[in-house]
Amino acid sequence: MDSLYPELEDYIYRYSGRFMTDDEAMARKTVMYSLKTQSESMLSMMREKGWMSDDPKILSMIADGSEALKDRIVKRIWNDHREELSLNLCPECKLITRTPDARQCRFCFHDWH
Ligand SMILES: [Zn+2]
């Protein structure tokens, strides 16, 4: 397994938070929460709680959008931590499952319950 594909990128982005830097994790959260609401009062509440950042450094990381951010973070983790990632791969086709606990393959439908 040496190349990324969209489902694997999703999985790494969702489940490999421990390999993210603090800035990457905050940028990811900031993007996620900012997509949830347009309300300025909600946004400022979330900033106060530390769920989002308005630090210019974080804002510059997300300036080109959530997909570009995801792409950069996933590629960096893949390059730096490929061997350490705990990936729940299908025992049959070796592709990535939907979640760390999944026991059925979305690609070949192999079931290992
Ligand atoms: Zn499979």
Describe this structure in words.
Helices cover 50% and strands 0% of the residues. It has a domain at 17-81. Helix 2 (22-36) packs antiparallel against helix 5. The protein is an all-alpha fold. It is elongated. It binds zinc ion (ZN). Zinc ion (ZN) binds next to loops.
Keywords:
binds zinc ion; elongated; 113 residues
Question: What can be said about this structure in brief?
Answer:
With 113 residues, this protein is mainly alpha-helical. The chain has 5 helices and no strands. The protein is elongated.
Q: Count the DSSP helices.
A: 5
* Low confidence ranges: none
Small ligands present: zinc ion
Order of helices and strands: HHHHH
The percentage of residues in β strands lies in under 5%
Chain oligomer state: single chain
Question: What topology emerges from the helices and strands here?
Answer:
Blueprint: H1 6-15, H2 22-36, H3 40-48, H4 56-61, H5 66-81
